[in-house]
Amino acid sequence: MYEGVVQDLIDELGRLPGVGPKSAQRIAFHLLQADPVDVKRLADVLIEVKEKVKFCSICFNVSEDDQCRICRDPRREQSLICVVEEYKDVVAIERTREFRGRYHVLGGAISPIDGIGPEQLHIRELLMRLGDEAVTEVILATDPNLEGEATATYLTRMLGPLGLRVTRLASGLPVGGDLEYADEVTLGRAFAGRQAAT
Amino acid sequence: MYEGVVQDLIDELGRLPGVGPKSAQRIAFHLLQADPVDVKRLADVLIEVKEKVKFCSICFNVSEDDQCRICRDPRREQSLICVVEEYKDVVAIERTREFRGRYHVLGGAISPIDGIGPEQLHIRELLMRLGDEAVTEVILATDPNLEGEATATYLTRMLGPLGLRVTRLASGLPVGGDLEYADEVTLGRAFAGRQAAT
């Protein structure tokens, strides 16, 4: 429809997640008018990110070195591992400043419908870490959805025989939410997980 | 918040139109996991589009050559010029296959609020074309909004003394729409522009 390379650009942009054909067109036209220096910077950072960004050889977190900042930090507790699905979960948890241990990034969650089984995730590497390192507690922090729950259940079963403490993040009412708008599963979990008032 | 270059990528993506911080993050994480070949292809096409795509020296349409495909085409009527705001309007009109003349792309519309006056648009170049070329009719096909109307009014006034036929696209009910849902301006224009039933 459009001149050769403009159509190529629209096609490439349209492959990005959440970018439909109309948005791809809109972004392409913006780039056509944009300062070539700005477009070059975007192109460069795309190349750079694929060249520089590796995954930590210990925990599979995103890293510019062989080991990520968190695994290299001697102040982080060696005895605690928090298992998450993705890099963005690490960032979200770091933002809370509540966790001083280390991470293990699975690279997704078990989802038979998408053809992702335990062998596609970094579960074998987690077991190897538990053999090598002085870990006493594994915190399962997968997403509270179907795939995340399945993954946590699978890991609980796998880790059971190792004699570690295996915990899961609390389920309950989100802070700042309204009780009446909570779905029944969340509300049910909030009851099941109730604690002594202090 | 994220490791150096990942944050740079999120920042650059966030500058694109319609890409908010959350979408930028989502796209960045997608690219982190993506095949380097695919990311390279996107980076290459960004560079290529800025290198290759120029603007037609006659009509300011997007073109990979000094003159665009339409201006080079001897079968297009030389006597008709359709004035549009942007390249995407050319594509939209070409899609109808109703117009066999040539275009003039203004590069926007008059919008004092955005600091765009007639001198920021390719209006001077349009007047030069009308002096040189054997044009008998100029069709004003700016957007039917405030800026487009202002631009059309301005051009009508400018072109009046030249003794050309100056026309505007018909305003009226969109085909396939419901009369009851038409806004009053559109419906008013549909009345004003009513034609003999055939």
Automatic annotation (TrEMBL), chains A, B:
<dbReference type="InterPro" id="IPR006171">
    <property type="entry name" value="TOPRIM_dom"/>
</dbReference>
<dbReference type="GO" id="GO:0003677">
    <property type="term" value="F:DNA binding"/>
</dbReference>
<comment type="function">
    <text>May play a role in DNA repair. It seems to be involved in an RecBC-independent recombinational process of DNA repair. It may act with RecF and RecO.</text>
</comment>
<feature type="domain" description="Toprim">
    <location>
        <begin position="79"/>
        <end position="174"/>
    </location>
</feature>
<dbReference type="Pfam" id="PF21175">
    <property type="entry name" value="RecR_C"/>
</dbReference>
<dbReference type="GO" id="GO:0006310">
    <property type="term" value="P:DNA recombination"/>
</dbReference>
<dbReference type="InterPro" id="IPR034137">
    <property type="entry name" value="TOPRIM_RecR"/>
</dbReference>
<dbReference type="InterPro" id="IPR023627">
    <property type="entry name" value="Rcmb_RecR"/>
</dbReference>
<dbReference type="InterPro" id="IPR015967">
    <property type="entry name" value="Rcmb_RecR_Znf"/>
</dbReference>
<dbReference type="GO" id="GO:0008270">
    <property type="term" value="F:zinc ion binding"/>
</dbReference>
<comment type="similarity">
    <text>Belongs to the RecR family.</text>
</comment>
<keyword id="KW-0234">DNA repair</keyword>
<dbReference type="InterPro" id="IPR000093">
    <property type="entry name" value="DNA_Rcmb_RecR"/>
</dbReference>
<dbReference type="Pfam" id="PF13662">
    <property type="entry name" value="Toprim_4"/>
</dbReference>
<feature type="zinc finger region" description="C4-type">
    <location>
        <begin position="56"/>
        <end position="71"/>
    </location>
</feature>
<dbReference type="Pfam" id="PF21176">
    <property type="entry name" value="RecR_HhH"/>
</dbReference>
<keyword id="KW-0479">Metal-binding</keyword>
<keyword id="KW-0862">Zinc</keyword>
<keyword id="KW-0227">DNA damage</keyword>
<dbReference type="GO" id="GO:0006281">
    <property type="term" value="P:DNA repair"/>
</dbReference>
<keyword id="KW-0863">Zinc-finger</keyword>
<dbReference type="Pfam" id="PF02132">
    <property type="entry name" value="RecR_ZnF"/>
</dbReference>
<keyword id="KW-0233">DNA recombination</keyword>
<protein>
    <recommendedName>
        <fullName>Recombination protein RecR</fullName>
    </recommendedName>
</protein>
